[in-house]
Design goal:
about 40% helix, ten-stranded mixed β-sheet, TIM Barrel, alpha/beta, single chain, EC 4.2.1.24, heme biosynthesis, zinc ion binding, 11 helices, ALAD_AS
Length: about 325
C-alpha cells in the first residue's frame, strides 16, 4: 500500500464540487417526518418556552401548519394528541371523536396525499400520566394491550396511513396487528417504537403533551440507557410480531443502537430526534453559542450515517427550507 506523500486524502476535499462527488451520506427532505400536537378548541396556538416554534394547535390552525409541510415536500407528519380532559383509563385515546381522530380526518381531507402517522399511546390521555392501565402502583401490561389496539384501530378508521405504538408494553405490536387485520386493515403499516429508552431527553415533550407521570417513573417499561443488547431483543420481538418499521428513541445519544439495529435487521429504521435534543440546540443558538443551521444539519446527517432511514424531528420545517435554499 502506498503511503504519504503519494497518498494525500486532502485531494478529495479541495473544493465543494469534489466533496459532493465523494460524499457518502446525503440528508434530504425525503428523510423527514414532522411531529405535530393537536389540541381541542378553535384558534388555539399554545407556545412553550422549552420548545420554541413548537405549539399545541387546534385543528383549524394545525391545518395551516400541515400546509407548510406539504409545500416544503416533507413526506408526512406524526400526530400527537393533547385532550381537554383525562381519566384513569385514557378513554380519549380511543374515542372515535378524540382530538387525534379529528385531526387525522381534517388533515387527510385537506391533504390526501400527505402521509399521516399517529402516535399510539395512553400517556397523554391518562390522569396518572402513565402509558398503560394502573393496578395498584404498577402499569399492567396485558390489560393495556386491548386499549392500545382499539386506539390504533380508531386512528386508522379516521384515515391514518400508519400507526406508531410508543407505549413499550410487551406484545403491543402483535395486538395491534391482529386487531387491524381482523378489521380489514392488513395493509396499514406499523412503525414500532422498538428501542425507546427511559431518557432525560423527553422533558420538554412532556410539557408540550402534558404527559408527565404523576407518580413514579417509566423505568419499568422503557429501556435502561445503559443497555444495547436489550434493544436488539426488543426490536427482534417487534419485527416478529409484525412491525414494518422500527424506531430508536432518543437519537443523538443512541447512534450506536441505530447502527446495530440497522446492521442486524436490515429493516427500515426511524430515529426520533427528540424534544430535549431540539431544546438544547435552540437554547444554545439563542445565546449565540453555536450555528443552529450547521449543527442541526450535522446532527441529522450523523443519524443518516448511523443507519437511520427516517428522521422524526421538530427541526423538519427549518431543515426542509435550508435544504431547498428558501
Amino acid at each position: 500500500m502506498s503511503v504519504f506523500p503519494h497518498v494525500r486524502h486532502r485531494r478529495l476535499r479541495m473544493n465543494e464540487q469534489v466533496r459532493r462527488l465523494v460524499r457518502e451520506n446525503r440528508l434530504t427532505v425525503d428523510d423527514l417526518i414532522y411531529p405535530v400536537f393537536a389540541t381541542c378548541g378553535q384558534g388555539v396556538r399554545r407556545a412553550f418556552d422549552s420548545m420554541p416554534g413548537v405549539y399545541n394547535l387546534s385543528v383549524d390552525l394545525l391545518l395551516e401548519e400541515v400546509k407548510k409541510v406539504q409545500e416544503l415536500g416533507i413526506p408526512g407528519v406524526i400526530v400527537f394528541g393533547v385532550p381537554a380532559t383525562k381519566d384513569e383509563v385514557g378513554s380519549g385515546a380511543y374515542d372515535p371523536d378524540g382530538v387525534v381522530q379529528q385531526a387525522v380526518r381534517a388533515i387527510k381531507q385537506a391533504f390526501p396525499n400527505l402521509l399521516v402517522i399517529t402516535d399510539v399511546c395512553l400517556c397523554e390521555y391518562t390522569s396518572h400520566g402513565h402509558c398503560g392501565l394502573i393496578k395498584g402502583q404498577r402499569v399492567d401490561n396485558d390489560t393495556t394491550l386491548a386499549l392500545l389496539a382499539q386506539t390504533a384501530l380508531s386512528h386508522v378508521q379516521a384515515g391514518a396511513d400508519m400507526v406508531a405504538p410508543s407505549d413499550m408494553m410487551d406484545g403491543r405490536v402483535a395486538a395491534i396487528r391482529a386487531r387491524l387485520d381482523a378489521e380489514g386493515y392488513s395493509d396499514i403499516p406499523i412503525m414500532a417504537y422498538s428501542a425507546k429508552y427511559a431518557s432525560a431527553y423527553y422533558g420538554p415533550f412532556r410539557e408540550v403533551a402534558g404527559s408527565a407521570p404523576q407518580f413514579g417513573d417509566r423505568k419499568t417499561y422503557q429501556m435502561d440507557p445503559a443497555n444495547g443488547d436489550e434493544a436488539l431483543r426488543e426490536t427482534a420481538q417487534d419485527i416478529a410480531e409484525g412491525a414494518d418499521i422500527v424506531m430508536v428513541k432518543p437519537a443523538l445519544a443512541y447512534m450506536d443502537i441505530i447502527r446495530r439495529i440497522k446492521e442486524q435487521t436490515g429493516y427500515p429504521v426511524a430515529a426520533y430526534n427528540v424534544s430535549g435534543e431540539y431544546a438544547m440546540v435552540k437554547a444554545a443558538a439563542q445565546k449565540g453559542w453555536l450555528d443552529e443551521r450547521r449543527i442541526v444539519l450535522e446532527t441529522l446527517t450523523g443519524l443518516k450515517r448511523a443507519g437511520a432511514d427516517i428522521i422524526i424531528t421538530y427541526h423538519a420545517l427549518e431543515v426542509a427550507r435550508w435544504l431547498k435554499g428558501v
